[in-house]
Amino acid sequence: MAGQIIIGGLAAGSLYALAALGLILIFKTSDIVNFAQGEMAMLITFISFTFLTVTKLPYFVSFLLSLVIAFIFGMAVERIFMRPVQKAPILNQIILTFGLYMVFRGVAGIIWGYTPVGFPEALPNKHFNYVGITITINQIFIFVVTTILMLGFYLFFKHTKIGLAMRASSQNIATAKLMGIGVSSVFTRTWGISAILGGIAGILIAPVTFLDPNMMGEVGIKAFAAAILGGFTSLPGAIVGGLLIGVFEGLIAGYVSSELKSVFVFALIILVLYVKPTGILGEKITKKV
Amino acid sequence: MLLELKKVTVSFGGLTAVNNLDLQVDEGMIFAIIGPNGAGKTTILNCISRFYTPCSGQISFKGENLLTKKTHKVLASGISRSFQNVELFSKMTVLDNLLVGLHPSLKSSLLSNAFKTKKNKQEEEAAKEIAFEILELFDLKHHANEEVRNLPFGIQKMIDIGRAIISKPKLLLLDEPVAGMNIEETKKNAELITRLRDEFGITILMIEHDMSLVMNISDRIAVMDFGKKIAEGTVTEVQNNPKVIEAYLGEVQEDVGT
Amino acid sequence: MKIKRLQILFISILLLGYPLLVGFSSYFIYVAGLFIIYAIMAMSLNLLTGFGGQISIGHAAFLAIGAYTTAILTLKLGLPFWLNLPLSGVITAIVGFLIGLPAVRLSGHFLAIATLAFGLAIPEIMLKWEGLTGGFAGLFIEKPSLFSSDTSFYYFTTVIALIITWLILNLLKGNFGRAFVAIRESEIAAEAMGVNVSLYKTLMFSISAFFTGIAGSLYAYFVGFISPHDFNMNISLIVLAMIVLGGLASITGSILGAFILTIIPQVADRFPGFTITITGAALILTILFLPNGLISLFNYKWKRKKTENKQLSLEG
């Protein structure tokens, strides 16, 4: 049973890791925590669903098309809403992203209603048995997508000009500006990329959660848990954190109570913040007097 | 001896900001610490006001060990400070800023505050009176009810000092009290600092880059370079110390001349 | 200060005369009572967030704890109303203190995440803990015999709200209020001025939770039925929107915000998704275009008028 739980946990955890990665990218470059990340992902999942059902596009075409829209959507949100509060107090920034959270959720409800609908899996359902553990082809698909994305990100940051600019901006905005990096356009693109990551997580998790405006409520908070566990400043931390949260939640559901699994994740968040705010792999932030 | 630092060392990561520093400040003097940027001056103030804890060494005030005290207990023991870039409460009025400086001496309880008891009212009135005395001293009475953020930097610097002395400390730490001020304001502040020593009996430990101010009002000067004290003495002693001239004064001599 | 007093005097007269105005219509009294309860909660949250600078995204959880304390003490222990009301405040304050403890080490975004997790966890725990809370089915509470009608309990709620307003205003004016605002403005300077920042942060959480707990107790009696769903994330966000829309760090602003955002759902709830969209849009627009909230419009006009009058009298 434990092996089965771990496989399921790792699959869910990979998706939390993707969403967490999106959160951390934004936090690292612009010092903003995007509380609307999950709701943005939910909207993108709905858009993908519309492509699938209304225009009857094939799965992978609508998948890719909605990711293109995600990129534009993420950039638009940054340009229209976040740019004006870039220098405002943190409190205002937090409140603004919660405002977006509410509007996105409400608008999705108005357009698509609140009845949960099924969302198709990426690949036709098939599963394999190996030493008593069942693994589905979709879980394998999730692992493959996550791994490719992580590798892609690694190469992107290491070897491309934009990646370098993003890293520089996350270290020191003032210096990055002096070096001639267009910090604002880096911010904008970061939001676009982060929306893509959230979108992928949303589309891949929708078959499990079903699709409705509240679908990302729980997933979103687990992405936060993953990010916090990983230290909120570390990209590998997000991955480790996501996988751990996925397995942790699976174990709680399996051995304690499936209804209380979220409560345990919430408690874990508070505990980590209380005991070790820098998480497993985070950097220490020192207060300057 | 009022304040004594013994073999104090502070380091951040691998970087040693203050190295094996000995310092003694006697009561009633204006003691200046000078030195180029990054010499570790502000770090010393931050250790005395307990924002930092040195990795080794001792700091004692009035013979008591200061290092066992928590940051918020420092003021009550008689040490107050101003900040380099005025850390004022910018959306509060000038009066309220000063009143926060009296925080440790206001004793009325939460309930007595909430129900506005007679005792609480009297305490508040008394506190306001003290605040107005300070405003009078600084000639800032007409600004009492203005929000600090709407006032010019020079005035903010004075409020910062006012907030630091309202609790009548024994020792006042000033972190660049005239930085960013014009000649007129600098002169006014120099007068004020000497008055604080002479009339209020406050001992002053200050960091300052303005050499004319330092040379004019200090009783004793310590010179820092790369975390180490390279010289200490009276104004003339320091001015004639070849080490100082080489390390520090040489580069700003033109400034002093003008 | 004078403007604030006049505004509050005006509001209290209006509230006390209100049942007469609406001919004791039970629906209108229900909405007004709800407004008053939310106003208490908004003021408490504003004390913490607007004045103290400590964000809380899970404040509905405190409301829930206050409401459930009252319901459980009434139903399981049969305690009387005059004991339940303060006890609900005290127990919520204790929880607030415990939540405030980690808050000492967290700031900004991370405090938001921690309180968000707290706000999500409490309703889920209540849902699961059926033996105590009745789970999904909720609990029914009767009004105390002394104020058994809607109108009389409405009046009772109004009086409690006025007392709480007075207490909060007093607190803010004194040494504690100054220390709270000082922490918001600069923790470093506050610490240097002898404010025990950690202690005062937990204190802020406790005080805010205490009054919210009282609001929760009033809610349980006034509405007569509570279930975990009444205290979900949306309520926390709507109360946050109340203080932002009305005005951060303004007591009258909290009341104004509570008024507007209690009325809007009464109309908009008929269309699913509209309440949350409108509230969210109000949040965004306020932050972008009027960061000091609607109340700043009133106060600004008032101030300008006053200076104009002064000039006139000088010229005269």
Automatic annotation (TrEMBL), chain A:
Question: What domain of life?
Answer: Bacteria
The portions of this protein that span the membrane are: 6-27, 34-54, 60-82, 94-115, 135-157, 193-211, 223-246, 252-275
- Can you say where in the cell this protein is located? Cell membrane
Q: Which GO terms describe its biological process?
A: amino acid transport
Q: What molecular functions are annotated in GO for this chain?
A: transmembrane transporter activity
Q: Which family does it belong to?
A: Belongs to the binding-protein-dependent transport system permease family. LivHM subfamily.
Annotated protein name in UniProt? Branched-chain amino acid ABC transporter permease
Species of the source: Neobacillus rhizophilus
TrEMBL record, chain B:
- Mind telling me which Gene3D superfamilies this protein's record contains? P-loop containing nucleotide triphosphate hydrolases
Please verify whether the record's keywords include ATP-binding. yes
Annotated InterPro entries: AAA+_ATPase, ABC_AA/LPS_Transport, ABC_transporter-like_ATP-bd, BCA_ABC_TP_C, P-loop_NTPase
GO BP annotation list: D-alanine transmembrane transport; L-alanine transport; L-isoleucine import across plasma membrane; L-valine import across plasma membrane
Report the Pfam families cross-referenced here.
ABC_tran (PF00005), BCA_ABC_TP_C (PF12399)
Q: Does the keyword Transport apply?
A: yes
Domain (ABC transporter): give its ranges: 3-251
GO molecular function term, any single one: ATP binding
Name one cellular component (GO) term.
Answer: plasma membrane
Q: Which UniProt keywords apply?
A: ATP-binding, Nucleotide-binding, Transport
Q: Could you identify this protein by its name?
A: ABC transporter ATP-binding protein
Q: Whose protein is this, by species? A: Neobacillus rhizophilus
UniProtKB/TrEMBL annotation, chain C:
Annotated Gene Ontology MF terms? branched-chain amino acid transmembrane transporter activity
Q: Which InterPro entries match?
A: ABC_transp_permease, LivM-like
Sorted alphabetically, the keyword list is: Cell membrane, Membrane, Transmembrane, Transmembrane helix
* Membrane-topology annotation of the record: Multi-pass membrane protein
Query: Which residue ranges does UniProt annotate as crossing the membrane?
Result: 27-48, 60-83, 89-122, 153-172, 203-225, 237-264, 276-300
Location in or out of the cell = Cell membrane
Q: Which CDD domains match?
A: TM_PBP1_LivM_like
Q: Do the record's keywords include RNA-binding?
A: no
The primary site where this protein sits is membrane
Q: Which Pfam families match?
A: BPD_transp_2
Give a GO cellular-component term.
plasma membrane
Which superkingdom heads the taxonomic lineage of this protein's source?
Bacteria
Keyword Methyltransferase applies:
no
Q: What is this protein called?
A: Branched-chain amino acid ABC transporter permease
